[in-house]
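Weekly puzzle thread! Below is a chain. First person to post its structure in token form gets bragging rights.
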Amino acid sequence: MSTFNYEILEAGDKPIKAWTKGVPFDAKAHEQLRNLAALPFVGPWVAVMPDVHVGIGATVGSVIPTRGAIIPAAVGVDIGCGMAAVRTSLHARQLPDDLAPVRSAIERSVPVGSADHRQLPDSIGTRLAASGLEARLERIRARHPKLRPDKVGRQLGTLGGGNHFIELCLDEDDAVWVMLHSGSRGTGNVIGTYFIEQARRALEKRVLGFRVPDRDLAFFLEGEPLFDDYIAAVAWAQDYARHNREAMMERVLRELRRFLPKFRLDTVAVNCHHNYVEREQHHGESLLVTRKGAVSAAEGQLGIIPGSMGTRSYIVRGKGNADSFHSCSHGAGRVMSRGQAKQEITLKQHREATAHVECRKDAGVLDESPAAYKPIEAVMAAQADLVDIVHELRQVLCVKG
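Winning reply:
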């Protein structure tokens, strides 16, 4: 008898193990997960994190192991999206009472929204060349000339929009942390969109002995040229996303040094993906593990689980839970679509929920207001056997795209 905290959902002959006790779980997400689990190359089971909600094709908050195949839409178009955080030697008492100038400076230094660099900084060109990203991308484009990621340099070191953010947070000892959330930006979107379409076209030509219930579950099979090309492209986008977070962190820290007393960076730093695929060993076999809105939580591994605007976030240490394929949630998870949130959440509610945070208080971020998300405390309680909480962070400043 398992002592783990998951529930097994009905899904035919293949289990879906869900860490969802005490949190909302939409019926449409149930249906998406059943569709995933029905594919013969998915398994030995699908793991579901407590931040689960409906996605495109694959469910956000799911861990999808596959044998000999890969589903591009399960990884999605925000390839390599993830989190970075670092603890500083600063204390809360060293922060100014008015953080608005600090927020404005960060927003000037790090392009937000759909913006990119008007002029490519020397540091960005150097990073691209030194990392080998330029050369690797050219090899990918040589095989796929219609793949045209034209913003690769101009968006490195930029935030993006949606749920991407930059924050200053305080931990339980009032130490100041810098935390940010972003990914591979427009370039990853172009790569993801291109290969999802290639997979759909390939699906139309396949003769299968099984039904694919959703064209967004189109796949490549190991041994096919497109399988290898996609693996190379998605690995590139994941590396680009990591470099993007590093470049942003450098810019944010530079601005903080202009406004705040001298400080050091602690040895505690995390940089982790939560939209990605890796080949891993689990349960005695080699699997391609796609984490769609989920974080690797191997035993002793540090990760980041952010809340929404105005709520708590967590630095966690993985417990290496084999049933979850060593994974945990990537955040709180939405309970409202963006459209629904903009209709139902008022500016007054948003301002009250974020009163303690220096952040945007306008209608443009209502879809990111705390009420649009599940309670982060319930999400953390549901995955107590996946991670230990190392630090609990509360926001004092938040930059949104």
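Puzzle host: Confirmed. Bonus trivia for everyone else. The chain has one domain: 7-335+373-400.
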